[in-house]
Amino acid sequence: MSETPAATLNVTAWSPGDDVIEVQRPPAPGAGHGAWRTFVETARGLKTTFGRITEGVNTISYPEEKVPVYPRFRGRHKLHRFEDTGLEKCVGCSLCAAACPADCIRVVAAENTPENRVSAGERYAAVYEINLSRCIFCGYCEVACPFDAITMGHDYELSDYDRMDLIFTKEMLLAEPLERTPLRNEGE
Amino acid sequence: MTTTLALVGYYEAWYIQILKAVVIFAVGLQLVPVVLMAERKIMGRMQGRYGPNRVGPYGALQPLADILKLLTKEQFRPTTSVGFLFALAPMISILTAVAAFAIIPFGNVQHIGGERVGLYGVDVSIGPLYLFAFGAIAFYGIMLGGWSSGSKYSFLGAMRGAAQLISYEVSQGLALVGVIMTAQTLSLTGIVTAQKGMWYIVPQLGGFLIFLTASFAETNRAPFDLTEADAELVGGYNTEYGGGRFASYYFAEYLNVLVVSGIVTTVFLGGWLMPFGIHPPGWVDPIVVLFKMSLITFFFIWVRATLPRLRYDQLMSFGWKVLLPLATLNTLITAILVVVTH
Questions:
Q1: CA nearest A64 in B: which residue?
Q2: What DSSP line would sit under A82-99, residue for residue?
């Protein structure tokens, strides 16, 4: 950076500091430079590509190898039960359905009776369906839930042949999910 | 009237010729899927990926799957196309490629079962001329294919191809003239035997480089693949082709790479001759030739993975302003040297 012109003009030149980027100049015209580009630069390029052969591949062969997901990855939903009593955490309040921007959750609540106690609260979700073909995996349902009854899991392999099969019912969401995706550990 | 149109160096009984042709083309055409596979695998490695690895062990059956897929497809033809030429063009392409393959010598005359058999399709005394004649006809395959498709992309690709082939054929031919003058023969086997002392890549290094560069253009390979510049022309002259006809174009392209590798091997790399005066038995000759051919083919693949496509004006100015003067200079210097040393 030459500061002489700025000094003579009595203008404070803006100093880029350490943040200077070396600009790759376009090749200069002329026969010498042309020959340089034709032979030396081409040879350099060939050397680069040849060196890549031994460097191995960056491909992750997906169905066989999977990228581990982070603990907070938002995959398919899970409904939870209390571990001690086995009762469902969901009380059928429909706050998740209200929070859902894609409107993909359907909750029909029913009263718990002493003979038929499903959840820990007054009511329970008689029907709890998530249409995963509409879900955008935003995680708002998880945030909205006052009882941590619904959380986002790690499973992202959700393709199916029929749209109807993508409407997950309460039983499917409560069931222990298939751990098909490796989980990335803390700090990994 | 027995006017000799072209002298043939040595020819065998008719049944041996037929047998020879079958063997050479059986081997030669098997090489095409190998080259196809090698290209995709090597380029994959150079770009940090595997390349095809699903069909068969290490993806080795991928070319077979591709060919099967293409051949079982419908023979599609656009309504704007000229039917007869549309069907004929890929045939011309593949025919010329196969015909050019005939003159590559894989070895000298051998004694097999009491017969003298030359390990080549035919040893014409006009080898390079034969090659360029078929090279020129090959360009009709591209030109007619692009034009008869009735599509602007195909047509643009074909026009580019025509201009490119004409420009580079001149330099390619001139690059060979130096060798022909030094060897004093037009027969390819003659050129090989003339390299007994030293391969022509040493005295004719300039010619070798010019020929190789022009060959990239002649085979429509990167960085001169403007004919089928995918990004701007969809697929170039073969945009409208599908199924078996596309397969023929594809096949011809790779066979052309093999032919050029064979010619470079024959003319500059000493054909079946081994370096350092090693004289192996005759059956090793084809292996030596195939090994040298595979080196050149590897170079073709390597360059494709390295260099970006040239702009059209760069291609033209490179052909006419750089390669042609250099080729002429090479010819001139060789001519002077030949006259001085003889």
A1: B54
A2: -TTT--BS-----HHHHH
Nearest to A46 among B42, B53, B306 (CB): B306
Residue of B133, B142, B199 lying closest to B172 (CA atoms) = B133
Alpha-carbon gap, residue B60 to B55, rounded angstroms: 7
Q: Judge: A53–B45 Cβ closer than 8 Å, yes or no.
A: yes
Q: Most distant CA pair in chain A: distance in Å?
A: 95
- The three-class DSSP label of residue B223 is coil
Nearest-angstrom CA–CA distance, A150 and A122? 18
CA B249 to CA B91: how far, in whole Å?
8
Query: Do B10 and B110 form a contact (C-beta atoms < 8 A)?
Result: no
Give the distance, in angstroms, between the CA of residue B39 and the centroid of all CA atoms in the same chain. Answer: 15
Which domains, from first to last, does chain A contain?
81-174 (3.30.70.3270)
Closest to B223 in 3D by CA, of B143, B318, B320: B318
Which residues in chain A have their CB less than 8 angstroms from residue B307's CB?
42, 45
Prediction ipTM score: 0.73
Alpha-carbon distances, residue A119 vs A142, A151, B99 (angstroms): 18, 17, 82
- Distance between CA atoms of residues B117 and B109, nearest Å: 5
DSSP-assigned states of every residue in B117-157: EESSS--BTTHHHHHHHHHHHHHHHHHHHHHHTT-HHHHHH
Chain A, chain B: beta-carbon pairs less than 8 Å apart: 37
Residues of B whose CB is below 8 A from A42: 306-307
Helix (H) or strand (E) holding A79: strand A77-79
Per-residue pLDDT of chain B (342 residues; tens, 9 = 90+): 455 555 565 567 777 788 888 888 888 888 888 888 888 888 988 888 888 888 888 888 888 888 888 889 888 888 888 888 888 888 898 899 888 888 888 877 777 766 777 777 777 778 888 888 888 888 888 888 888 888 888 888 888 888 888 888 888 888 888 888 888 888 888 888 888 878 888 788 888 988 988 888 888 887 887 777 666 767 778 888 888 888 888 888 888 899 999 999 988 888 888 877 777 777 788 888 889 999 999 999 999 888 888 888 888 888 888 888 889 999 999 889 888 887
A57, A62, A64, best to mutate vs chain B, most B CBs in 10 Å: A57
Q: Which of residues 41-100 of A touch B (CB under 8 A)?
A: 42, 45-46, 48-50, 52-53, 55-59, 61
d(CA A87, CA B211): 81
